[in-house]
Structure formats: structure tokens, C-alpha cells
Write a structure and sequence with these properties.
By secondary structure, the protein is of the alpha+beta class. Helices cover 33% and strands 15% of the residues. It has a 3-stranded mixed β-sheet. Strand 2 and strand 3 form a beta hairpin. The model has no long low-confidence stretch (mean pLDDT 86).
């Protein structure tokens, strides 16, 4: 008699996920989705990675758009000079 492995679940606790991680990763690689729970509460979802460009996906979903004007570099600001060393200023504030 050959023991049959228990089928993989669509919702799994962290402990079981830890014990059978490679099996669950392969399951997700094959197209499945697995929800991870901690103490019965859903905390994460494992889904296959799409090879699509993430920015293209966000653009297609209408969540971002291309800039309408070119970006201008920040104008150089003059560097500030402290009257005393910063350590002295901090020490004065702590008194």
C-alpha cells in the first residue's frame, strides 16, 4: 500500500506552508492561487508572477499615467552654513 500525498489546499496556515513550501510554490507555479493564514486570519496571497511589465499593467488598469511635461531638474539651492557645529546645537536644545 502506497500512501498518497494529501492534496494541496487553496488556503493554508503558515506552519503547513513552511513544512511544504516547495510543494506549494510548485502548485502556484502551475497556476493556482494560495491564501496564507495566521491563527485563522488571512494575511497573504501567493499568486504566479506575470512576465508583464508592472508599469504597463498599472497603466492598463488606469492607476498611473505618463507625465504630460518633461521633468525639470531641481534648481540648485545654496548650501546653508551653520554658525556652530551641529553637536553644539543639539546640546543647546537638550538643556
Amino acid at each position: 500500500m502506497t500512501p498518497h500525498p494529501e492534496p494541496l489546499k487553496t488556503e493554508v496556515g503558515v506552519r503547513e506552508l513552511h513544512d511544504r513550501l516547495s510543494s506549494y510554490v510548485q502548485h502556484v507555479h502551475n497556476g493556482a492561487e494560495v491564501v496564507v493564514t495566521m491563527r485563522g486570519r488571512r494575511v497573504a496571497r501567493l499568486v504566479p508572477v506575470n512576465e508583464i511589465d508592472p508599469l504597463a499593467d498599472l497603466r492598463a488598469r488606469g492607476l498611473i499615467r505618463e507625465p504630460t511635461t518633461p521633468r525639470h531638474p531641481r534648481a540648485r539651492r545654496p548650501r546653508l552654513k551653520a554658525a556652530k557645529p551641529v553637536s553644539d546645537l543639539v546640546a543647546d536644545q537638550r538643556r
